[in-house]
Amino acid sequence: MRFDFSTAGESHGPGEVALVHGVPAGLGLVAGDVNRDLARRQRGYGRGGRQKIEKDEIEFLGGVRHGYTLGSPIAMLVRNKDYANWEDRMSPEPPEKEPKKVTLPRPGHADLPGMQKYHFDDLRNVLERSSARETTARVAAGGIARKLLAEFGVEINSAVYRIGAVAMDKEAAALAAGKADESEVRCPDPEVTEKMKAEIDAARYARDALGGEFVVVAEGVPPGLGSYVDWRDKLDARLAHAVMSINAMKGVEVGMGFGVASRRSSEVQDEILLENGELVRSSNRAGGLEGGMTNGEPVVVSAAMKPISTIAKALRTVDLSTYEPARAFKERADSCAVMAAAVVGESMVAIVLADAMLEKFGGDNMTDLRAAYEAYTGRLRDEARAKGAGNGA
């Protein structure tokens, strides 16, 4: 079985649940391996009041014993502390008194199409699941994927390179992504960080919100993950799908992305060189992916996030209970959540790469998985060195 996951839970319900399948037996795993990224997801300049209430930590409900995975599904629960304030509105049991219905859909949110699709008369049934709170469970699943990948030297980082009109060079941000956690906005440039914070302050003062762009970088990924033989196996498409599924994402790029459209071929391709018996690239414009497969260079995926839909400056809408013009529903929200989205992006990239690793190397347990990985990477290394030596390299 390959790495897969599903989530359950509502924003103000009892908790968020992640169920992860396909993790080999024998992977060392403790709650702290996951909680680190849950804490990173909650940090960031411009976050809303919800982050002051919650302290996200997982509880293993199955699949882990004495610090090691069992090969069975791993179930994790993150309890919502705010549920205590919402139990009357979110209880699974029929209420004694019907709570007030929410009927003012927000432009840009799942509210209106969700109500139309599922035939609801209360958009709380939509917004509780469509909330970005669901990404808590994704980050929990991604923490396991990250731990699995780390066993093979894969490290994943991210950086924010744009918030609103303030930006730094994307390539420079990718190269310095390992330092992004030092910044309140996850931007590795201290000067740009301060400009981004000022941009967020201005939006908050205007009762508005900002989106932005971030880049995820996975280093140490072996060549040959994914495949060119079937459209469903192409790894760049799988990565784009996963990252685009994050709330509020409106664009995904791999490597140079849309920048390749304005360049000549000689300015886009990554030339292949032989150095010290190893095949290397002169650059990484393709973002580590060619023909739907990894090529041994860092995997680089970036995404554009729109501003969130819940803002104090409520936009025009229609009250679905009366079909009269109105102003959109408002609930507690962030002024900017791009830095949190970047951490979620890391998790989704980790999940796709972990799935591709298991697809390529198989193994019901870590011993067999390592043996297959070492045999493959050893063959590539030995072939390059032997043939390179024969050519005097």
Automatic annotation (TrEMBL):
Its required cofactor(s), as named, are: FMNH2
**InterPro entries in the cross-refs:** Chorismate_synth, Chorismate_synth_AroC_sf
Source organism, top-level taxon:
Bacteria
A Gene Ontology molecular function term of the record: FMN binding
Q: Where is the composition biased (Basic and acidic residues)?
A: 88-101
Q: Which UniProt keywords apply?
A: Amino-acid biosynthesis, Aromatic amino acid biosynthesis, FAD, Flavoprotein, FMN, Lyase, NADP
The positions annotated for binding FMN are R129, S130, S131, N247, A248, G291, K306, P307, I308, S309, T310, R332
Per the entry, the cofactor note is: Reduced FMN (FMNH(2)).
According to its UniProt entry, the protein's GO biological process terms are:
amino acid biosynthetic process; aromatic amino acid family biosynthetic process; chorismate biosynthetic process
Short name of one Pfam family for this protein? Chorismate_synt
Which of this chain's residues are annotated to bind NADP(+)? R41, R47
Tell me the route in metabolism or biology where this protein functions.
Metabolic intermediate biosynthesis; chorismate biosynthesis; chorismate from D-erythrose 4-phosphate and phosphoenolpyruvate: step 7/7
- Substrates-to-products reaction catalysed: 5-O-(1-carboxyvinyl)-3-phosphoshikimate = chorismate + phosphate
Tell me which GO cellular component terms the UniProt record holds: cytosol
EC number(s) stated in the UniProt entry for this protein: 4.2.3.5
Stretches the record annotates as Disordered: 88-114
What does the subunit section of this Swiss-Prot or TrEMBL entry state?
Homotetramer.
Q: What is the recorded function of this protein according to its Swiss-Prot or TrEMBL entry? A: This reaction introduces a second double bond into the aromatic ring system.
Q: Which family does it belong to?
A: Belongs to the chorismate synthase family.
- Name used for this protein in its record: Chorismate synthase
Primary gene name: aroC
